[in-house]
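Progress note, sequence design subtask.
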């Protein structure tokens, strides 16, 4: 259900609101009480996607289009339309109240045959609140998040400059910046969701049974057909890195061996066919 605003007047104090967070707080008070919870949840996502401290005068049409692509790529058509409708009312409110000069609401629409994640090479699946992460994985994700936030700020400025200098419809650099902005913003959302309430695995909260494969633990497995032994650390999918010896618990092998003990032989269905592994060591 699309939230309906009770606002009917104009705001003579438009200059007192300069950030998207301030604007959201002002707008929420105008929403009918029954519609407020759902609208607040959706608009909260939108504001976090933009950046809580973003100034209203820095918002540009291209990134609003990016948000449309983001929503369209992560939901069913009816759901996406309803979600965008809530945001559209918010943007229309900003224009009506004089908080922004351009009617950004008109740039919020679903586009066919296009997704902001095309070509993305990073994970777009969040670990989710309460995920169990290793200390090193948690630190690496925090570092990546900080770097991506800086990158997104830079891309936002690139978009603003390109949109002001050239025709949006015929600007290849602008389109490239929009694609990058959308991909970076999506990865930021994934990391924020994964880090929210994450539990760092320690000796105290990990599995205490010796010789059993556990999340965060180190394990040595031997492929029986070749006799090749491999030592890895079993980690959450979002921090997996084969080059660093970190195996995803969501992979065929990782998912099959977790919870099993040293000496057991496990059969794993892989794309190359069934393979047998012996658990040689688990710490």
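Output:
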């Amino acid at each position: 259900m699309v939230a309906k605003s009770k606002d009917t007047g104009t705001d003579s104090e438009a200059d007192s609101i300069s950030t998207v967070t301030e604007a959201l707080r002002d707008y929420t008070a105008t929403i009918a009480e029954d519609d407020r919870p759902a609208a607040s949840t959706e608009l909260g996502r939108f504001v976090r996607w933009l950046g809580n401290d973003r100034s209203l005068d820095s918002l540009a049409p291209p990134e609003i289009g990016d948000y449309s692509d983001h929503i369209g790529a992560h939901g069913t058509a009816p759901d996406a339309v309803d979600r965008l409708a809530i945001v559209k009312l918010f943007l229309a409110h900003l224009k009506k109240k004089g908080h922004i000069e351009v009617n950004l609401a008109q740039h919020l629409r679903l586009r066919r045959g296009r997704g902001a994640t095309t070509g993305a090479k990073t994970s777009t699946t969040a670990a989710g609140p309460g995920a169990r992460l290793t200390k090193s994985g948690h630190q690496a994700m925090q570092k990546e998040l900080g770097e991506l936030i800086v990158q997104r700020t830079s891309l936002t400025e690139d978009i603003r400059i390109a949109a002001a200098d050239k025709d949006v419809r015929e600007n290849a650099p602008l389109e490239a910046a929009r694609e990058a902005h959308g991909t970076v913003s999506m990865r930021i959302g994934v990391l924020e969701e994964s880090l929210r309430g994450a539990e760092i695995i320690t000796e105290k909260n990990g599995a205490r049974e010796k010789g059993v494969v556990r999340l965060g633990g180190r394990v040595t497995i031997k492929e029986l057909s070749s006799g090749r032994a491999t030592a890895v650390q079993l980690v959450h999918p979002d921090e997996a890195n084969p080059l660093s010896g970190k195996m995803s618990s969501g992979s065929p092998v990782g998912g099959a061996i977790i919870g099993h003990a040293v000496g057991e032989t496990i059969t794993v269905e892989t794309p190359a066919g069934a393979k047998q592994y012996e658990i040689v060591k688990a710490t």
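Residues 135-165 form the longest helix (31 residues). Work on this subtask will continue into the next period as scheduled.
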